[in-house]
Amino acid sequence: MIVRGVGSTVWDAEGRELLDMLGGGIWVAQVGHGRRELAEAAAAQITELAHFTSFFEFGNDKSALLAQRLADLAPGDVNRVFFTSGGSEGVDTAIKLARLFHHRRGQTERNWIIARHFGYHGATYGSGTATGIPDMQHAVGPNLPHIEKVTPPYPYHSEMYGGEDPTDFLLRELEATIERLGAENIAAMIGEPILGGGGVIIPPEDYWPRVRELLTGHGILLIADEVITAFGRTGAWFDSAQRGMDADIIVTAKGLTSGYQPLGAVLMRDRVADVMAAGTDSFFHGHTYSGHPTACAVALANLDVLANEGLLRRSLDIGDWLRAGLAPAAELPAVGEIRVEGATVGIELVANPQTREPVAPDLALAVADELYDNHRVITRNYGPVLVLSPPLVLDEQQARRAASAIVEVLSRLDVKAGRVNPS
Ligand code: PMP
């Protein structure tokens, strides 16, 4: 039970002080906990006008200002914004938008969405079906039809590619998938710039540019799921822009408000937004809390903090501090790979470094538990991968403390016995 937070520190109900290396537990708290300026922005807006929906014909000044700010920060002609309450709603919106884009141009067969194994896109039926994490696939009843999964880029597990260059293999597979489904039946591909919930998996540099080129050739849209990566997590406002995705639709949430209010934003290119406006019937889609003025006011204050305090730059520093602090762990037999991308880290634990066979998820969970109980450091395992996504206000001393705690616990990890040995 977490009851209080300041900066990168939180307290649990038993009064224990903990270092939050997960940013609110789930890659959220970009500006850290307990920020007065965000509380004041919320209070001022609630006093003025807590909420008035943008679902129908109304709007409000805060959502308009935030849409403009996002358009200014977003790459190229990504200039239009649709607000949701979070990531899953955003992904579902993006899927609908991609289909609508083609349907309004007369291509009503373009319904397939290509997603990837190891991808995480949310928990609603649409976003959940696009998710490729097996543990999360136990939907109640049939999943959404017309979603196909392809292999992700996972350089550490080169065995997936049978000795071939990973990008060559993946492009060949994608091309074969497009051929099998028929390009004329495919609306979009969706992917996270780096896979987050799948275990912080970073693609080779040429992956996204080559995927983008192939999709463009077939008239298929690209949706970047930036729910984790946007707003500084990897050092940029939008990670997809620095990774060569050139996305048509960008889904964001989490860091948009640093979790101080539930809010998501689906950004899109003008040409995607234009088809919505061009239809003879309107695109009847929205939510009670679409364009929530209080959430948008908090987001504006949050973006100010990110910019004014240089937290995008700090994200890269955090990555450097953690990389240096974690380096001794790379020598341990149970550590397969340490992946760092700004303030996001995945430490993949292996039962056998030669075969790269992963440890049982319970063992990675035992590491996270030990870090909590003995070092008062909050981390999480995603399967066999121990993940860090700290607030972007983490300082060097905190980063080094977290890293040395992790190295200490991992040095006691006994894979054969299936436990963390007592200290
Ligand atoms: N996409 C990605 C990449 C995510 O990491 C998440 C949440 N972890 C979502 C979508 C879903 O967002 P939400 O939980 O806000 O619905």
Structural account:
With 423 residues, the protein is an alpha/beta fold. The protein folds into 2 domains: 2-34 and 310-420, Alpha-Beta Complex (Aspartate Aminotransferase, domain 1), CATH 3.90.1150.10; 37-308, Type I PLP-dependent aspartate aminotransferase-like (Major domain) (Aspartate Aminotransferase, domain 2). The protein is built from 13 helices and 18 strands. The protein has helices spanning 23-27, 36-49, 61-73, 87-103, 125-130, 166-181, 207-217, 239-242, 270-278, 293-308, 311-326, 361-375, 396-411; strands spanning 2-6, 9-12, 17-20, 78-84, 112-116, 147-150, 186-191, 221-225, 249-252, 264-269, 335-340, 345-352, 357-358, 377-378, 380-382, 385-388, 413-414, 419-420. Strands 4-10-9-8-7-5-6 form a 7-stranded mixed sheet, with helices on both faces. Strand 11 (335-340) and strand 12 form a beta hairpin. Helix 3 (61-73) packs parallel to helix 10 and helix 12 packs across helix 13 (396-411). The two termini are 26 Å apart. The relative contact order is 0.16. The mean pLDDT is 96. 4'-deoxy-4'-aminopyridoxal-5'-phosphate binds at residues 26, 86-88, 91, 120-122, 192, 196-197, 225, 227-228, 253.
List the helices and strands and how they pair.
Layout: E1 2-6, E2 9-12, E3 17-20, H1 23-27, H2 36-49, H3 61-73, E4 78-84, H4 87-103, E5 112-116, H5 125-130, E6 147-150, H6 166-181, E7 186-191, H7 207-217, E8 221-225, H8 239-242, E9 249-252, E10 264-269, H9 270-278, H10 293-308, H11 311-326, E11 335-340, E12 345-352, E13 357-358, H12 361-375, E14 377-378, E15 380-382, E16 385-388, H13 396-411, E17 413-414, E18 419-420
Parallel strand pairs: 3-14, 5-6, 5-7, 7-8, 8-9
Antiparallel strand pairs: 1-2, 2-3, 4-10, 9-10, 11-12, 12-13, 12-16, 15-16, 17-18
Bound molecules: 4'-deoxy-4'-aminopyridoxal-5'-phosphate.
